[in-house]
Amino acid sequence: MNCMWCESNQIIEATKDCYWILPDGLASVQILQVPALSCKNCGLYLTDEINHEIDFALYTRNLPARKNGILYKELINAPYKTTF
Ligand SMILES: [Zn+2]
């Protein structure tokens, strides 16, 4: 696996805590322990794939209402919103 930006192979898998704007644009949520890459040259960042996955999950999943911060794993495993 190489860095998405500089193609260095000196990267390690890491996790990152991020703030994300919710689809309604009115609020943000902190997402914890998101899988990330850490590159010696470019620093710590999320891949496009993970970015898309989080965007999609925030659209389609019911978030736990109780908290400001949610674990990435909790988000990805949250129940789907009912649509009716
Ligand atoms: Zn890099």
Topology:
Blueprint: E1 11-21, E2 28-39, E3 43-45, H1 48-60, E4 69-71, H2 72-77
Parallel strand pairs: 2-4
Antiparallel strand pairs: 1-2, 2-3
The protein binds zinc ion.
As a percent range, the share of strand residues is 25-35%
> Into how many domains do the coordinates divide?
1
Termini separation? 42 Å
Question: Can you write the helix and strand succession as a string?
Answer: EEEHEH
InterPro entries: CHP03829_YokU (IPR022451), Znf_MqsA-type (IPR022453)
Protein name: YgiT-type zinc finger domain-containing protein
Organism: Anaerobacillus alkalilacustris
Describe this structure in words.
With 84 residues, this protein is α+β, with helices and mostly antiparallel strands. It has one domain. It has two helices and four strands; from the N terminus they run βββαβα. Strands 1, 2, 3 and 4 form a four-stranded mixed sheet that branches. Strand 2 (28-39) and strand 3 form a beta hairpin. The protein is elongated and about 45 Å long. The protein starts with 10 loop residues before the first strand and ends in a 7-residue tail after the last helix. The model has no long low-confidence stretch (mean pLDDT 92). The structure holds zinc ion (ZN). Zinc ion is lined by residues 3, 5-6, 8, 39, 41-42. InterPro entries: CHP03829_YokU (IPR022451), Znf_MqsA-type (IPR022453). This is YgiT-type zinc finger domain-containing protein.
